[in-house]
Amino acid sequence: MQLMHYLTLAAILFSIGFYGLLTRRNAIALLMSLELMFNAVNINLVALNRFVTPRDFTGQIFAIFVIVIAAAEATIGLAIVILIYRNWHSIDADRINLLKW
Amino acid sequence: MLDKAFLIPFLPLAAFVVIIFFTHRREKFSSGLAIAMMAAAWVMSIICLIEMLSYHGEHPYQLQQAFDVVNLPGFRLEMGVLIDSLTAIMLIVVTTVSLMVHIYSLGYMHGDIRFSRFFAYLSLFTFAMLGLVVANNFFLIFIFWELVGLTSYLLIGFWYEKKSASDAGKKAFITTKVGDLGFLVGLMMMGMFLGTFNYLEVFEKISAGQMSGGLLTAMAIFIFCGAVGKSAQVPLHVWLPDAMEGPTPVSALIHAATMVAAGVFLVARCMTIFMASPEAALTVATIGMVTSFFAATIALVQNDIKRILAYSTLSQLGYMIMALGLGGYTAGTFHLLTHAFFKALLFLGAGSVIHAVHTNDIQEMGGLSGKMRTTTITFVIASLSIAGIFPLSGFWSKDEIIATAAKHPAFLVASLAVAFMTAFYMFRLCFLTFYGAPRDQHKFDHAHESPRSMTWPLVFLAVLSVVAGWVGIPWLAHGYSSFVYHGEPHHAKPEILLMVVSTVVALSGIGLAYLMYYRRAISADAMARRFQPIYTLLYRKYYVDEVYDVIIIKPVHALARFLWSFDVNVIDGLVNLQATVTLRLAAAKQWFDEYIVDGLVNGIGLVTGAASSALRLVQTGRLANYLLVVLFGLIVIGLLSTTDLLNWVFMGVGIQ
Amino acid sequence: MMEAMVFYLFAFLIVISALAVVTLRNIFHCALFLILCLFSVAGVYVLLHAEFLAVVQVLLYVGAVAILMIFAIMLTSKLAGREIQMTNEQTFLGLFLSFVLLFGLVYALRGTLFRIVAEGPPPQSTLQIGRLLMTDYVLPFELVSVLLLAALIGAIVIARQEGN
User: Fold this and answer.
1) Nearest to B628 among A22, A25, A94 (CB)
2) Quick check: helix, strand or coil at residue B66?
3) For position C72, which CATH number holds?
């Protein structure tokens, strides 16, 4: 398959994740949308690595790092969500508005 | 001695200084000192006169001693003395009368709380008067002129607790000051046109004709103004009658013999000037005549013993001035000499009477001859003298004057009329005071003769009133007229006719008084009623004081009030206005500061607050909103980057 | 030919599961579909000759992150109780923007000239990757290790119970 297919796939996945990020109320759902976006980025990286610089594995290594960091970030994010739940008994993102004026 | 004559004034001055600064509280010592100094001065004056009389030189004796105080090219001030026959005569007059007054005051002022000060003032006055007569230049005489004015103010208003006394002092000072202004203008003219103030130089220049015509007349008249003020001629006579508020010795000294004589002395001194200007001389003579007639008419109807004598003085001064104006240097100064003595005697005698009966009103007196022998006799002698009865001194001097006036018919008639009136009112005074039945029994019972210190001067002066005139007897070879003269000595021809006429006039005056007031043959009251309007006019002194009050006093007061109100309302008003304006301005500025400036500042704050209130609504606190906005912006930028817009915004027009 | 079909299969799975993740009401279902999506992405990696990465993806993402999410879901949602509303009021705007994004990206991609190389990838990529990690990219490798450590500790600190 051609590069453009992979890139278009990545774009679609990214947009879906984007939509989820903007729309969902559940905090965990937000994190999941974020994971989708990360995955789209990874597909992009790997595809470009495969078609533009096959000998050089920079893209893949970059993707590894993205995954690792995404994992770390998911950990922290979920820890925070649990903490919020413990205090408010809700993880509705619309209700978490302490920064409101 | 004559070359030390300049020391004479300093003797009473020393007495004044010592009394005022040191011996104020020791009354006996102060009065003793004053009298001693005065006596010394008197003796020195006599010696000077004798020396001068025994001087036989080609020209009449004249000694000038002076030194320059200021000697600049255009201006020369000297201090010095000029001793000549006139000076010698004046020295005698002043020191004699002053000494008599000093002695008299021992008794009269006894018990007064300011006893020492009185003697100090007397001494100061005498110093001023003596300085006046010995001065050798007009500037110096003016200084002493003013000093005499000052001391007369002090002496007239001596009993200043009485308002009438202090008012009289003020009146004297101010009225003579008016005359002094004229004198000053005359002096300024002299300085301007003649360039010198020294007597001898001035007279020389005038005789040489350096000043002429109108200017000379004007200057002469201005100088005469000083004499008009000091010698109380019309129209500046108003202060003299009021000056009777002072103690009687003061009246005797100042208003009989000395201060008023200063004017006569001045005219005599300036004879050269007046003779050089016929118009001025005529003015002088006319004023003198008018004054003497005017004053004599008033004296006819007055009831205050001192007032009568005051108007009499005015009248006699007028006589002297008139004589001088008509060229009678000898006559005028001769009368000055004799008048000094008998007028002083009259005043001192009046003082004695007042002291005895405690009233000035002659209508309340009567029959005092029995109780006060010495006073009566001396008083009558003086009255005869002033009336001009042979062979008393007054007869000779008055005759000289009438002789001088004889050349001018109008003046002759006036002089004789005045002589008649003089005799009449003097003897009215005598008869009412000393003879007849006492009108006030109570006062009569308390009357007594005065102490020795008061009667002794009376006697001495009475003697002088008789003999002093004998130096001027026309038949004398070396009489007064060969001693004191202007120009050439003239031996007065005895005018028998005039002597007889004047004696008749005088005797008829006395006779009328005798009929009216002694024998009561003619009723004074009936006459007064018949001539009511004239009587009232005379009694009220021709209403001169009232006229002056309306014309001068009231307008000046009104002006003063106006200026005061101007000052308070306008000037102070302006100041206050400025203050008010400043206050208003400050208030306005404060308002401005508070509402506009602060308002602006507060407004900015408010606007910021309002804006923030509006803007903070953006902070919903919701993650989703934030994400939306951020990602929205991201997309916008992403889209914009596909165009040239961002490049244009950030890097300017014309991107390659 | 085969490759294309596999690709389209995986692509279809990815897209559908992604859509499910962002739209389903039940959060648990979303998590399950997320796992499916992640698996599919791993498949795509294999297609791209990135085997090591595929395995890492499965191990880490599915094995750790997704499980973690499920745990979190378990801990925080009341599965039996009232459920949270799924979407907020920004749906319209979000949809619009997503489409804008999509079109923009596609447009940008189409307009870009990629320098495609014809040769294929070398075999034994794992070895090469390992070698690169230890030599050229050792620093990021170490840093990421530290980051994980920090994340670990941070998560413990954040989420621990009071009084422990």
Assistant:
1) A22
2) strand
3) 1.20.120.1200
Q: Are residues C7 and C73 in the same domain?
A: yes
Select from B623, B625, B627, B630 the residue whose CB has the most chain A CBs within 10 Å, as the one to mutate to test that interface: B623
**Of A74, A83, A94, which is closest to C68 when you measure between CB atoms?**
A74
Quick one: tokens of B542? Answer: 């021709």
Same domain, C3 and C58: yes
Cβ contact B635–C100 (<8 Å): yes
Q: Among C56, C78, C100, where does a domain finish?
A: C78
pLDDT over 90 (residue B538): no
Give the range of the structural domain holding residue C152, as residue numbers without chain letter: 122-164
Q: Are B415 and B402 in contact (CB under 8 A)?
A: yes
Give the predicted TM-score (pTM) of the model.
0.62
Q: Which fold has domain A3-88?
A: Helix Hairpins (1.10.287)
State the helix-helix crossing angle for B259-269 and B213-230, rounded to 10 degrees.
160
Q: Are C159 and A83 in contact (CB under 8 A)?
A: yes
Any B CB within 8 A of C97 CB:
yes
Number of structural domains, chain C?
2
Provide the residue ranges of all domains of chain A, joining segments of one domain with +: 3-88
By the CB < 8 Å criterion, does A74 face chain B? no
Helix and strand element counts for chain A (H, E): 3, 0
> In Å, how far is C107's CA from the nearest CA of chain A?
10
| Region label for B232, one of left (φ > 0), alpha (ψ between -120 and 50) or beta (otherwise) | left
Enter the tokens of residue B535. 């009587």
Q: C134 CB near a chain A CB, below 8 Å?
A: no
A46-95 pLDDT, tens per residue?
A: 999 988 888 888 889 999 999 999 999 999 999 998 888 888 877 777 77
More reliable by pLDDT, B493 or C29: C29
Whether residues C12 and C68 share a domain: the answer is yes
Q: Is residue C129 part of a domain?
A: yes
Residue B366, Ramachandran bin (φ over 0: left; ψ between -120 and 50: alpha; else beta): left
Beta-bridge partners for B137: B198
Position A33 confidence tier, pLDDT thresholds 50, 70, 90: very high
Q: Measured between CB atoms, does B634 come within 8 Å of chain A?
A: no
Burial zone of A51 (CB within 10 Å; 0-12 exposed, 13-18 middle, 19+ buried): buried
Q: Is B619 on the interface with A (CB under 8 A)?
A: yes
Question: Which candidate from B619, B620, B631 shows the least CB-CB separation from A22?
Answer: B631
The answer to the question of residue C94 being in a domain is: no
Q: 């209700």: which residue's tokens? A: A95
Q: What is the ipTM of this complex?
A: 0.90
**Cα distance between residue B23 and residue B454, in whole Å:** 24
Burial of B289 (0-12, 13-18, 19+ CB in 10 A): buried
Mutation site for A-interface testing, chosen from C19, C114, C156 by largest number of A Cβ within 10 Å? C114
Q: Find the DSSP H helices in B391-451.
A: 393-405, 409-434, 441-446
Q: How far apart are CA B222 and CA B227, in angstroms?
A: 9
Q: Do C97 and B624 touch (CB under 8 A)?
A: no
| C39 touching chain A per CB within 8 A | no
Examine the pLDDT at C79 and tell me if it is beyond 60: no
Our CA angle for C59, C61, C65, nearest 5°, is 115
Hey, of C16, C107, C158, C162, which one would you mutate to test binding to chain A, going by the most A CBs within 10 A of its CB? Answer: C158
Listed by number, the residues of chain C in 67-86 with a beta carbon closer than 8 Å to a beta carbon of chain A are 68-69, 71-73, 75-77, 84-86
Structural domain ending residue among the three candidates C42, C61, C78: C78
